[in-house]
Write the structure tokens for this entry.
Amino acid sequence: MSKPSLSIIIPCYNEEEGIPQLVQQLRPVAKELCKTYKLEVIFVDDGSNDRTNELLHQYFGNWSSVKIIKHEVNKNLGAALKTGFTHASGDLVAALDSDCTYPPSLILEMLQLLDEHTDIVTVSPYHPLGKVNNVPAYRILLSKSASLIYKYLLSSGIYTHSAMVRVYKRKVLQNVHSQANNFLYVSEILIKAVLKGYTVKELPASLQVRQYGVSKIKLLSTIKSHLNLMGRIVIYKTVGREL
């Protein structure tokens, strides 16, 4: 019996300081996953202007299951995820942070939650059993407030809508799409999946402050994007106009 296939997408942008940490944490996880899955890991270098691409090839270039894709210019997180998803061949497709703010080992627990009745598993720091450690207060206020509003608008019971680290069944990504190329993509793809009837489980998790590099989120742009999406959800729920 053949193994199920799993693709892991890891977007990277100016992450040269954190690549050694990623190697250290990802290697044992990949080794464990290969026991059960036909694994491929897809790095998307989103137009980095530091040594990210060089280090990806240095540390991961000899892995038989690795693809390294480079955007010539920075296109933002959503675009990097779309590129990764487009190149993914797995029956299951996961997304991981390159900065290890969520440890790669969480994917092992997420896969255990993915059953025949579940289409998406997402990490959830805002779950009652989740945690947030040393992350700047303004980021938590923005992210948690947005998730609370989405929870209310969707009546979904989902606590966290903004965490990128997830596992999807392939059919979800084939049928759910977003025009967003920025950080909003992460929230919008989950919300649209819920509205299409796909089922979601949350894995309570601890969100850690990044140890290397700087966050790439643009605060004002992200706030405006979330407000726009919330307005579109209200219109969808009121008159049925597609998001």
Notes: The mean pLDDT is 93.
